[in-house]
Design goal:
By secondary structure, this protein is an alpha+beta fold. It folds into 5 domains: 4-228, GHMP Kinase, N-terminal domain (Ribosomal Protein S5, domain 2, 2-Layer Sandwich), CATH 3.30.230; 239-317; 332-545, 2-Layer Sandwich (Ribosomal Protein S5, domain 2); 559-704, OB fold (Dihydrolipoamide Acetyltransferase, E2P) (Beta Barrel); 735-775, no CATH class. 32% of the residues lie in helices and 27% in strands. The protein contains 19 helices and 29 strands. Strand 2 and strand 3 form a beta hairpin. The protein is elongated and about 145 Å long.
Length: 775
């Protein structure tokens, strides 16, 4: 296969798309490169599927070697299950491409993205999105693309502001907006955003800015298709489905309408759909025994007619399935402090959608460590979403979180991240879990509302409450209607689910899913305006129940304090082999963690234990000066003095000469271990040792005054006159023959050899003639 490549410039960075060289057995493959970030996209079409839905799967694989990393685990070095970030990137791609496949196309399609290299500047998810668009466009798979995708940021500057395209992590630190936009030539297909209370007008402007860049990407991909594109597969309508739809439209429309009402009101035993399908199947078999219609086809036809009736009612009669107005929110019920032993909890109900959110506070060491090709990072605010089968009134598999649950949790986390206090203000790791007990539309936004209340109930000083709402849409070729707070049936039968969360100041998160080939900028503007009205209404109800966060934490929450110490003092807090810090933990019962920047996190269930540990650490790094007075405790007694702990963990030595104005022979005569004594810092020597004194006033002055050697001796030597330090005369040498012989022999032999010489040393010593040798 011939290698084909196209490139374009995106705000100073080159995007290159290549096909025909790698993964040659796939239906299509594209190597997408931006900067030094390289992503391989493969697409495989697996033939006709027996499933009654479109079996599209998107897998996003991030390899640690892409950033020159090896997995930190000691035992497992191979990448395991996809990280939450990889799953979210896969969902981003899925939601961007799925609406553009023909409804009648039911072949297996698998998209696999492999991140091969990352440069830390160009985000791999954007490169992958454009690579997938190119691969589908050049493949034989029928698809109404291509699309282009960019990331847009916004930085305030001189009161105005500047929009950024595909900004890197450095710019992201200053950006108030992070939005990924996927677009066709004239419509927006997917939006995913987090923001710092940005206005609706700025969001609309960001979408417009994105369209300028995505148009360039689409033109480049179309150029690639001209050079290397394949002929698309033909898609034929399902004749049996068309027949079944005609039968139901003609004879069972009223039954379908009754089915809609039973689903809305949740009446009956939940088998109404199966009963209707069985009834239609039996009647068709009786009317025409040779009919090829089966229950599976009839079920699809019933759903199709049901959704068509719901949409027609909204567009023609302005009537929603549950009787509400187009902009009406379902009844809201709120309860805070729902659980007795948790750190914070709240139950948020909107209609029959119920979200129970629970907050848990932990010490800074409980942060989540995230390992990726870009390196390691930590998260101190974590939001998890759980929606088990019973929340739909169904049975099903219970195991690891689904991709939907991970996506909903990430959306709620992003919505609240803008109002979470910084660690300097609130030094806790925060985990929120939303247990969705009943689902009937927009459970992720109910989780956002419930989590806001739970955080306030826990005493987390969030900047402002956050609320979320979902806006749906019913449309045909000419008209459309926007629906506030959609329920499940409206979600399934509608064309869009546009979730918007924010404060009374601005938007903090948005997520757009569509089932049609996109929405216009004008529609986005109206949706944001309608969502703001609904959001403010929900916020008013939240503030009525919880005007602000509680001032006190739960008595079951740990107590956490952060102490900043000089980096040079870290060793004093840790001690040799961790001796000091281990002693602090064992003695106080508090947990102590020291960071490289000098931040010391102290946590514990008991406030007294935390306070004691904080005092201890502060005393260890405190600079003691000469002249300070302390009330200390005698810890050790030695022959020359006693060691007194005048601050927690900091000792000084009182010499015997500083214990009393009188002579002290034994320190035990003055002090006992454990005794409280008043001490004064006499001096700090050049090695940093603290010398203490128990003398004060005139005694201290006399003790501190320099004295001569004679004065320092007991009794003194004042009356003995001056000492003579002149050299002494040499001692006269003996003239004894043996002494002379000894001197001669000693001078001729080295010291080491002399010691080994037998007999001479004892014999040569005058005055010891009668003593026997030692050896």
């Amino acid at each position: 296969m011939k290698k084909t490549s196209v490139s374009l410039d995106l705000e100073g960075t080159t995007l290159t798309l290549e096909t025909g060289e790698l993964a040659v057995q796939t239906t299509a493959s594209v190597l997408a490169t931006m900067g030094e970030t390289v992503v391989l996209v493969t697409v495989v079409e697996g033939g006709k599927s027996d499933l009654d839905y479109f079996p599209l799967s998107v897998e996003y694989g991030e390899r640690l070697y892409a950033g020159g990393k090896i997995k930190g685990s000691r035992w497992v070095k191979r990448e395991g299950r996809p990280s939450d970030e990889a799953i979210l990137a896969g969902r981003l791609i899925d939601r961007s491409i799925r609406p553009l496949f023909p409804k009648a196309f039911k072949n297996d399609v698998q998209v696999i993205v492999t991140v091969l290299s990352v440069d830390g500047e160009n985000e791999a998810d954007i490169v992958a999105l454009n690579g997938v668009s190119a691969a589908l466009a050049v493949s034989r798979i029928p698809w109404n693309g291509p699309i282009g995708a960019v990331r847009v940021g916004f930085v305030k500057e001189n009161g105005n502001g500047e929009f950024l395209i595909n900004h890197g992590p450095v710019e992201a630190e200053f950006s108030e907006l992070d939005i990924v936009v996927s677009q066709t030539k004239d419509k927006t297909v997917m939006l995913e955003a987090g923001a710092l209370e940005i206005s609706e007008d700025k969001l609309v402007e960001a979408v417009k800015k994105a369209h300028v860049q995505t148009a360039k990407i689409i033109a480049t991909i179309e150029d690639l298709v001209k050079k290397a594109g394949s002929k698309k597969l033909e898609v034929s309508e399902d004749a049996l489905l068309h027949e079944a739809t005609s039968v139901i439209d003609k004879s069972y429309k009223e039954d379908v309408q009754n089915l809609i009402e039973s689903r809305v009101n949740k009446e009956g035993g939940g088998n109404e759909t199966e009963d209707l399908i069985g009834k239609i199947y039996e009647n068709q078999k009786m009317a025409n025994p040779d009919s090829a219609l089966d229950k599976k086809t009839i079920a699809k036809a019933v759903e199709y007619v049901m959704f068509k009736l719901i949409k027609k009612s909204v567009l023609e009669k302005k009537k929603r399935v549950d009787g509400r107005k187009m902009d009406e929110i379902r009844p809201i019920n709120i309860r805070v402090g729902f659980l007795p032993r948790t750190h914070g909890s709240a139950l948020f109900e909107r209609g029959i959608t119920q979200a129970l959110s629970i907050v848990t506070l932990g010490s800074p060491r409980m942060e989540q460590l995230i390992e990726s090709a870009e390196g390691e990072e930590t998260k101190r605010y974590i939001h998890h979403y759980s929606g088990l089968p019973y929340s739909f009134g169904q049975t099903g598999r219970v195991g690891t979180p689904s991709r939907r649950e991970i996506g909903h949790g990430a959306l709620a986390e992003r919505a609240l991240l803008a109002v979470i206090p910084k660690q300097e203000e609130f030094p806790y790791t925060i985990r929120v879990v939303s247990e969705v007990l009943s689902q009937n539309g927009s459970s992720s936004m109910a989780s956002t509302c419930g989590s806001t209340l739970a955080l306030m109930d826990a005493g987390v000083p969030i900047k402002k409450p956050v609320a979320g709402i979902s806006i749906g849409m019913m449309s045909d070729e000419k008209n459309y209607e926007l629906l506030t707070d959609i329920i499940g049936l409206e979600d399934f039968s509608g064309d869009m689910d546009f979730k918007v969360a924010g404060t009374d100041t601005g938007v903090t998160a948005i997520q757009l899913d569509v089932k049609i080939p996109g929405i216009s900028v004008e529609q986005i503007k109206k949706i944001l305006e309608q969502s703001k009205i609904a959001r403010l209404e929900i916020l008013a109800k939240i503030k009525k129940v919880m005007p602000e966060s509680r001032t006190n934490l739960s008595k079951y929450a740990p107590k956490v304090e952060i102490v900043k110490i000089p980096v040079g003092k870290i060793g004093e807090v840790i001690g040799p082999g961790g001796k000091v810090i281990k002693n602090i933990i064992a003695t106080t019962g508090a947990q102590v963690e020291v960071e490289d920047d000098g931040s010391v996190a102290i946590s514990g269930v008991s406030e007294e234990a935390v306070e004691k540990a904080v005092t201890w650490i502060k005393s260890l790094v405190r600079e003691v000066t000469a002249g300070e007075v302390f009330e200390g405790e005698v810890k050790r007694i030695l022959p020359f003095g006693a060691f007194v702990e005048m601050l927690p963990g900091k000792e000084g030595m009182v010499h015997v000469s500083k214990m009393s104005a009188e002579f002290v022979k034994d320190p035990n005569d003055v002090v006992k271990i454990g005794q409280k004594v008043k001490v004064r810092v006499a001096e700090i020597d050049d090695q940093g040792r603290i010398n203490l004194s128990m003398l004060f006033g005139e005694d201290a002055e006399k003790s501190d005054r320099p004295r001569g050697a004679a004065e320092r001796r007991p009794g003194g030597f004042q009356n003995r006159g001056e000492r003579d330090f002149s050299p002494r005369p040499p001692r006269p040498q003996s003239e004894h023959p043996l002494a002379q012989q000894f001197r001669r022999e000693r001078s001729s032999v080295s010291s080491s050899d002399w010691r080994k010489k037998p007999g001479i040393r004892p014999a040569a010593r005058p005055g010891f003639k009668d003593r026997k040798p030692h050896y």
